[in-house]
């Protein structure tokens, strides 16, 4: 399992890459895609999002799981690529972003790679 330096993480296994102070890309971690198995469907809600609330969902051959927003802001863009090819999340979890959030006002509780890594061991 891979954890990339330079990204921030949530306890619910989403990653965040800040493009600037108020804009970020959001995706699912390598841990999340491994736990889910083969991903067959990805859906992300557009518009306002609130940290800790459901941002969308991902369906795998095992189950449907919610994606939680790691920040509060506005979903300004949904990446069409993982919707067209959901397996791209399995193949390249850190290269496949799900959405771009702008106007970020709440980014508390994000973890750096060192703080996130123990969470992947505790839930194995």
Explained architecture:
- With 124 residues, the protein is an alpha+beta fold.
- It has a single domain, classed as RNA polymerase II/Efflux pump adaptor protein, barrel-sandwich hybrid domain (OB fold (Dihydrolipoamide Acetyltransferase, E2P)).
- The chain is 22% helix and 41% strand.
- The protein has four helices and nine strands, in the order E-E-E-H-E-E-E-E-E-H-H-E-H.
- It has helices spanning 30-36, 80-84, 87-91, 113-122; strands spanning 8-9, 14-20, 23-28, 39-44, 47-49, 54-60, 64-68, 72-78, 99-106.
- The strands form two sheets. Strands 1-2-3-9-8-5 form a six-stranded antiparallel sheet.
- A hairpin with a 2-residue loop joins strand 2 (14-20) and strand 3 (23-28).
- The longest helix has 10 residues, at 113-122.
- The chain is globular, with a radius of gyration of 13 Å.
Index terms:
globular, 124 residues, three-stranded antiparallel β-sheet, OB fold (Dihydrolipoamide Acetyltransferase, E2P), alpha+beta, single chain
In terms of DSSP E residues, the strand content is: 35-45%
* Secondary structure tally: strands: 9
- Please give the domain count: 1
Structural class: alpha+beta
CATH superfamily: RNA polymerase II/Efflux pump adaptor protein, barrel-sandwich hybrid domain
Helical stretch tally: 4
